[in-house]
Amino acid sequence: MTKAFVLIHCETGREFYVYKKLQKIPEAAEIWVTYGPFDLLCKLETTSEHYLKDIVINDIRKIPHIKETETLLVYV
Asked: What are the two backbone dihedrals, phi and then psi, of residue 25, each rounded to the nearest 5 degrees?
């Protein structure tokens, strides 16, 4: 299993909109609204790095109101 944490910066006031959209992604194991430079933290669990990349690019980054993402791939 491949795991990663995706840090998400979104437009002001749109945190819960993005949160609800992330909840619809089956691979989003856990999601938190945070304070600081990033607004949300999403833990992804997938079958491969290739599939993880596909989810970040084609599912998460296409959610309206997301300005920036940073993905931290877990190796252990």
From this structure: -90, 115
Q: What is the CA radius of gyration of the chain?
A: 11
pTM exceeds cut of 0.90: yes
Integer distance in angstroms from the first to the last C-alpha of the chain? Answer: 11
Specify the pLDDT at position 21: 98
pLDDT tens digits, one per residue of 36-76: 999 999 999 999 999 999 999 999 999 999 999 999 999 97
**Could you tell me the maximum CA-CA distance found in the chain, to the nearest angstrom?**
35
Both tokens of residue 4? 């990663």
- Asked if residue 66 lies in contact with residue 60, where contact means CB atoms within 8 angstroms, the answer is yes
Which domains can be identified in the chain, with CATH numbers?
Answer: 2-74 (3.30.70.920)
Length of the chain in residues, anyone? Answer: 76
Take residue 26 and report the two structure tokens written for it.
């089956």
